[in-house]
Specification:
lysine biosynthesis, TIM Barrel, 12% strand, Schiff_base-form_aldolases_CS, 8-stranded parallel barrel, DapA, schiff base
């Protein structure tokens, strides 16, 4: 199992490839994860938002986790596997977290309970129960999806819970990581891709970065530059990635990512499960132009 010292660098929330008929495309998943591992990432997330967690069954999560473990063994690496287990039901989240532990996950990513819009006290109680399972817990703050925002005091209280090893901050800016950095030694990863460089300067330990499913080596290099104190070079590297990031979030994630990976031949199809839909022709044209410019450079 992982600890808070492992929570740094670039963690990639992996897309879940589907065939055109909507079934899981295991060969494409294997090819994609193998490529990610070759770029020196620090961790993988299975069944995150980018993996279309709302429409992926637990049997499919089990299959993906087992495939990921097998690939890591084959590659001879020790990259942590984090499995998304959070729901808006505490009992269901506890049950999924127990299953992830049995599958051999190194940690779990648990979103702040969504839709119900619980009180700050209810959110704290939710994480206390999940942390009792004994597998390391990463808190996932994403108010745009959950409908509720953590206060700094609540975030610090949750981070103080034994078994909680850090946070993915997708709050939309750098205010939370800036406030938390002097209050806790537990790491905060940036989950808002356009904010990654600013978050690193504000004290983030890395990023849980959906965009790093593509051009992974460029994201890893930009992080390494920032971590080594070469901020001017890191800023320039992130600036080169921003046009890509902006296009990838112009329409709902992960549809643009899947289009680009399919275009590159990494996965067989850009299929997504409803209610997500494939990208529009206009975005496909913009991504095609970007891809062509990268291929020429």
């Amino acid at each position: 199992m992982m600890n808070q010292r492992d929570l740094q660098g670039i963690y990639v929330p992996v897309i879940t490839p589907f065939l055109p008929d909507g079934t899981l495309d295991t060969p494409s998943y294997r090819a994609h994860v193998k490529k990610l591992l070759a770029h020196g990432i620090q961790g993988l997330v299975v069944n995150g938002t980018t993996g279309e967690s709302p429409t992926v069954s637990w049997e499919e999560v089990k299959a993906l986790t087992e495939e990921t473990r097998a690939l890591i063994r084959e590659q001879g690496t020790s990259v942590p596997i984090v499995v998304g287990t959070g729901t808006n039901d505490t009992a269901a989240t506890v049950s999924r977290t127990e299953m992830a532990a049995r599958l051999g996950a190194d940690g779990v990513l648990v979103v702040v309970p969504y839709y119900s819009r619980p009180s700050q006290e209810g959110i704290i109680a939710h994480f206390r129960q999940v942390a009792q399972i004994g597998i390391p817990v990463i808190v996932y703050e994403i108010p745009a999806r959950t409908g509720v925002r953590l206060t700094v005091d609540t975030a610090r209280t949750i981070l103080d819970i034994d078994g909680v090893i850090g946070m993915k901050d997708s709050s939309g800016g750098t205010e939370l990581v800036t406030a938390l950095t002097p209050l806790t030694d537990k790491p905060v990863l940036c989950g808002e891709d356009p904010c990654l460089f600013d978050a690193l300067r504000a004290g983030a330990a890395g990023g849980m970065t959906a965009s790093a499913n593509v051009y992974t080596d460029s994201f890893c290099e930009a992080y390494r530059l920032a971590a080594s104190g070469r901020l001017e070079d890191a800023g320039a590297a992130f600036a080169r990635l921003l046009p890509l990031i902006r296009l990838l979030f112009q329409e709902p994630n992960p549809s643009p990512l899947k289009w680009l990976l399919a275009r590159q031949g990494v996965i067989a199809s850009d299929a997504v499960r409803l209610p997500l839909t494939p990208i529009t022709g206009g975005l496909a044209d913009a991504l095609e132009r970007l891809l062509s410019s990268h291929e020429r450079s």
